[in-house]
Design brief:
There is one protein chain. By secondary structure, the chain is α+β, with helices and mostly antiparallel strands. It has a single domain, classed as Nucleotidyltransferase, domain 5, CATH 3.30.420. It has three helices and four strands; from the N terminus they run αβββαβα. The protein has a four-stranded mixed β-sheet with strand order 3-2-1-4, with helices on one face. β2 and β3 form a beta hairpin. About 35% of the residues are buried. The model has no long low-confidence stretch (mean pLDDT about 90).
């Protein structure tokens, strides 16, 4: 098994463990984050109905042109998602780091959402 396959396997195990305890509701959706090398994507999901309430990404046209793979862009994505949730009357959420370590860009998304008014 090469190093990339092992890394994917470890992340998949962490992801399963996290999802066994974290679940979203309409009042408190699950904020799930996906991080690629160039971009970061966030969704607010209501797991009871299986609907995505809001989403934001560095590929959105709503964000100014910037490098999508840095902490500053991740924080901006968190603030954008929070603004979209607040428009829909949602002020609380649970954070799903999706198997990624809680540091760097993943942490910046959560802090950006908190600064914009979402209670995590």
């Amino acid at each position: 098994m090469n190093i990339d396959a092992k890394r994917r396997l470890v992340r998949a195990r962490k992801k399963r463990k996290i999802r066994s305890t974290v679940s979203g509701t309409p009042e408190r959706p699950r904020l799930t984050v996906f991080r690629s090398a160039r971009h970061i994507y966030v969704q607010a999901i209501d797991d009871l109905s299986g609907r995505t309430l809001a989403s934001a990404a560095t590929t959105d046209g709503a964000l100014p042109e910037q490098n999508g793979g840095n902490v500053k862009a991740a924080e901006a994505v968190g603030k954008l998602l929070a603004a979209r949730l607040l428009e829909k009357g949602v002020s609380r959420a649970v954070f799903d780091r999706n198997g990624f370590l809680y540091h760097g860009r993943i942490r910046a998304v959560a802090e950006g959402a908190r600064e914009a008014g979402i209670t995590i």
